[in-house]
Write a structure and sequence with these properties.
Elements lengths: L1 E4 L4 E4 L2 H14 L2 H9 L6 H9 L11 E10 L3 E8 L4 E6 L4 H9 L6 E4 L3 H10 L4 E4 L1 H18 L31 H18 L4 H8 L3 H9 L22 H10 L4 H10 L6 H12 L13 H9 L7 H13 L1 H19 L5 H9 L5 H12 L1 H7 L7 H16 L6 H10 L1
Parallel strand pairs: 3-6, 6-7
Antiparallel strand pairs: 1-2, 3-4, 4-5
Helix pairs in contact: 1-2, 1-3, 4-5, 6-13, 6-15, 6-17, 8-9, 11-12, 14-15, 15-16, 16-17
């Protein structure tokens, strides 16, 4: 570093070698960490100086890519998203856009007529932007996203046929014993309202038995005469348990048989039960399910036997190549499929789609969609197939050509690391410099 002292101010200049070193440190480590590194080099500068050096750098000279990959990244998760564009052939980022709108993406493509292939996921704004901005380019849907979407649809199908996951228990030989009748009281022991009502009923009947009149009992207990009359007519306190809300129809009633069945199968997590019926269309919140479980199911005996596999585990078995399944998982899957023809059909559709993905057999996709849409007992799979028809050309290209968006996903992950490293200083312009130059 060269420094000269003047009368009114000090002037310092950096050699080109030092400036290049500081720029390299700033691009690699950003502000705070970079400033600590310059201390180790014995040329200390502030974190703001490093960031100013990065911001002053010109954009790198790049040629228009022939194969471009596009994906979104989060500037503020859930609120603000941008777009990252990568040259798939050189595996280098070529630009960052401040939003993920179709108009912005289309304008960027229109300035680069040499683009021949656009690799993307199935987001509608990227599909629309590619169609308008580069009508000459071939759009390729990413295979990983297709497989991931199939897995989500398969898991919903398995949840729908959750009862098939538990093997049917063998019926014991000999006379069948009748179960003991359930108690007639709708209010269990320990319920606050029930205990209060039982205490009032016992007190009122004790006073009446001792010879007090009903009006006298009403004055002593501070109750109305009509209340004393109702308690006196009830021979047992259970006759008073006629709460208005208890017999009123609720939206949970249609799902109570399913909750009872899942409880018998071993699922005792109220939150998990609520998530399952929410997938089936239950419109209310968690509190109703929690109250029903605590009031009606908690303490109820469960069926004896091994716990059935979860729907997610069965889905994982369906999405795994049969030769890669451990022996124990393979036997459990065979048991599940033997009990449910719908899941057997799901297994066949899933594995045929997997062969298309693994061997790039996109020409078989129309036949697969036709077979999947004809399955009435697997609505989630049918909806997945119908969505593929809306983007059919890009999906067929994704299942036929070797191009994919894997390198773009890698740069999205790298952007997350850069944002964490910059400790809140990752504004768009500064972040764009680091992504393109680092």
């Amino acid at each position: 570093m060269i420094c000269q002292r003047r009368e009114s101010s000090s002037w310092c200049g950096r050699t080109e070698r030092l400036r290049t070193t500081l720029v390299s440190v700033g691009l690699a480590l950003a502000g705070r960490a970079g400033a600590r590194m310059t201390d180790a080099f014995k040329v200390p500068v502030s974190r703001n100086t490093l960031l100013r050096l990065i911001a002053s750098l010109p954009d790198p000279a790049t040629t228009a890519p022939r194969v471009v990959g596009v994906d979104e990244y989060a500037q503020r998760n859930g609120r603000i998203y941008g777009t990252v564009l990568v040259d798939v052939e050189t595996r280098r980022p070529v630009d960052l856009l401040a939003d993920r709108e179709a108009d912005t993406f289309a304008a960027w493509l229109a300035k680069r007529p040499g683009i021949e292939i656009v690799c993307r996921d199935r987001a509608p704004f990227f599909a629309e932007g590619a169609t308008r901005g580069a009508p000459q380019a071939l759009q390729v849907a990413d295979r990983w996203h297709l497989w991931h979407n199939l897995g989500e649809a398969a898991e919903k199908c398995v949840y729908r046929h959750r009862s098939c996951l538990r093997p049917t228990p063998e019926q014991p030989e000999g006379p069948r014993e009748e179960p003991e009748p359930a108690p007639s009281s709708p209010w269990p022991t320990g319920h606050r309202f029930a205990e209060r009502t039982r205490a009032k009923h016992a007190t009122i009947h004790a006073l009446l038995t001792a010879g007090h009149s009903k009006r006298s009992v009403a004055r002593q207990l501070g109750m109305t005469l009509n209340t004393i009359l109702r308690f006196s007519r009830a021979t047992t306190p259970e006759e008073m348990f006629t709460g208005q809300w208890q017999n009123r129809a609720t939206r949970l009633d249609a799902y109570k048989p399913y909750l009872d069945q899942r409880w018998q199968e071993g699922c005792t997590n109220a939150w998990k039960l609520w998530e399952e019926i929410k997938e089936q269309g239950y419109p209310r919140g968690y509190a109703s399910v929690r109250d029903y479980v605590g009031r009606n199911l908690r303490g109820k005996p469960q069926s004896v036997g091994p716990r059935p596999p979860s729907a997610r585990a069965v889905t994982r078995w369906l999405l795994t190549h049969p030769d890669a399944l451990p022996e124990g998982d393979r036997l459990q899957l065979e048991t599940v499929l033997a009990n449910c023809p719908e899941l057997t059909a799901l297994s066949e559709h899933t594995r045929s789609f997997g062969r298309m993905v693994a061997h790039l057999q996109g020409d078989q996709l129309p036949a697969w969609i036709e077979a999947a849409t004809s399955t009435t007992d697997l609505p989630s799979l049918r909806h997945f197939a119908q969505h593929l028809e809306r983007d059919l050309d890009a999906v067929i290209a994704g299942l036929t050509l070797p191009w994919n968006s894997g390198v773009v996903e890698g740069h999205v992950n790298r952007i997350k690391m850069l944002k964490r490293q910059m400790f809140g200083r990752a504004g768009f312009e500064l972040l764009r410099k680091r992504v393109l130059l680092a």
